[in-house]
Amino acid sequence: AETQLDDEPLRKDNNSAVLLETLRQQLTSLQTPSVISSENKNNWVLHCAWAIQNLVKYNQISQENLLTYAMNHLLDILTFNEKVILLSYLTTKEAGAAELDDLDRYIQAYFEQFKISGGRYNGIVLSQFNKPSDYEQYTILNNVDDKWVNNKRAVAGGLAQAMFQKFQLTDMKIINDIIGFMINFKGSQIVFKTKYIKQSAKGRSNKGQRCDRGEGKKIVIRRINMLLGSHGGKEKYEIAKKYKSSISFIYG
To answer: How far apart are CA 140 and CA 204, in angstroms?
Structure first.
């Protein structure tokens, strides 16, 4: 894991423009569904664009909310260094009172979720999945004169306590039986998993599973129908009787 000297500003690469352009293209793709070719069949963004259109059309869910969730996911799966690059870019832009564009506002809203204040310090909590597995998978940064630094004094002086007060879950009754979370998968990629928080019948903890593994389409459709509920007494998706992997009706 990369280490920093105490109070040393985190290194900023000059490739924020490349990162921003990638995110800008992804945002455009999310807003405008397009044909998915065989070469792009595993492109999450392209599939997500159609899912957003579907949920807006059939379930009247806010497109803006769905775009926010999608952009949050794309920002979630960035590396720690990439997040620091974006955070530094945004902080510099805000300090200069520059006008924020649509992409900037999505990035701003994302980071606002993780900002904390404790004692006389302001900071932010960022996930850092490249740490050894026996370390906390996050890092607390302190804002000093619009620079983001590792500062042990700030962490001990209030930021750690502020983090636990904001994010620590103390009442399991307020969350669903199924939760989602990001995790480093085999040290090579950051993936989204779902898991049942209840123990199995044998008393074992559920480690969760990737959304694209371990479940057939029938199980996935059943879960979607459960989450969305029925409209007019009809579930959203009905599986075809002849071809079990296809959908015959939507609220049909």
So the answer is: 32
